[in-house]
Each structure stands twice: as structure tokens, then as C-alpha cells.
Amino acid sequence: MKYIPSLITRYLLALFLMIFGLNIIYFIISPLTFKLSYYSLFYYSPILSSENSFIIENNKLNFIPACTAASAYLLLALLVLTTELKLKKSIKTFLLGSLLILIANIIRIDILIITLIEYGSKAFETVHLFFWKILSTIYVVLLWIFLTKYFKIKEIPIYTDFKNILNIYKKSKKV
After folding, report:
1. pLDDT in tens, 51-77
2. Taking each helix axis from N to C terminus, what angle separates 87-119 and 3-40, rounded to the nearest 10 degrees?
3. d(C-alpha 47, C-alpha 4), whole Å
4. How far apart are CA 65 and CA 70, in angstroms?
5. I need a surface site. Which of 67, 80, 104, 174 has the fewest CB within 10 A?
């Protein structure tokens, strides 16, 4: 009965991440996202202004924690943890998914900054809202579908665990 201890461990870790995960992700991902964004915009000759901001063509660009897309990483982690996977497959799934989130986020930030510089703040706000309200959710859903196909994951988050617990309960009632 290795399943029950594994289940408890996965869901306790998921609970821990729901409580503390965003702060952990901000701590790890924010500096990386900021630096990659800064370097990816080299053709605009950005000037570092502070730890979390740089200047391009008289536009001071402040990176706030939400710029890191922390909720996307957290959602990915929760999907992985609430899916019955072997440890190695869980780690591979999370790492590949995180890399793809990071790449997409850097592209998103670049598009937003280019929009601000080339078309002004109104265009920036429109594109930003589109990315934030619509595209980000669609991206994470499509990412999860891609990861399940790529890693041949048959389990469904939460549902498969619920079904397995129900089967264990039914078997225990027969005895």
C-alpha cells in the first residue's frame, strides 16, 4: 500500500504550495525573469535603474512580482502534484512545463515592452489585458494538454486519486 502514503505526501505538498508557493516562486523566478527580459531587449539598449527596473527610451519599466507569472508555475505544480505520477516523471513534467512558461513569459514581456515603446501606453494596456485575462489561462491549459501528450500521462488530476481511493474503500468493505 505505497499509494496512500504517496497520496498524502503529494497533497500535503500541494497544500504547502497553495499557502507558501507564490512567495517561493517569486523568490526563485523573479530575478531570473527580470534578467532574461533585460538581456532579451538588448536592441533597445536598456539601462538598469534598480534591482527591479530598467529604462528604455525614457520609459522606466518596473518589474512587479506579477510579471513573473507565478500563478502559472503554481498551477502547473498543483496539476503535477494532484496527478498520480512517478517521481521522475513528475520532475520532468514540472521542469519542462516551467521552462516553457518562462520562455512564453519572456516573449510576453518583450511584446508588452515593444508595444509600450512603439505604440504608447494605451496600446500597452490593451495588449497587457489581453495577455493577462485571456491568453495566460489558455496557455497554461494548452501547456498541460501538451505535457500530458508528451509524457503520455493518462491520469487526471484529483479525479484519478479520488477514483483510486474509492476502489480501495470498496475493496476494504468486501473483506
Report:
1. 889 999 989 999 988 889 999 999 999
2. 30
3. 53
4. 8
5. 174
Which DSSP helix (H) or strand (E) runs through 48? Answer: strand 47-50
What span, in angstroms and rounded, lies between the C-alpha atoms of 47 and 79? 38
CA distances from 63 to 22, 23, 45, 91, 175 (A): 16, 15, 17, 28, 59
Which regions of the chain are under pLDDT 50?
none
CA distance 156 to 175: 28
Alpha-carbon dihedral 161, 162, 166, 168, rounded to 10 degrees: 20
C-alpha cell at 7: 497520496
Number of H helices, E strands in the chain: 6, 3
Q: How many CA atoms lie within 13 A of 127 on its CB side?
A: 18
pTM of the model: 0.91
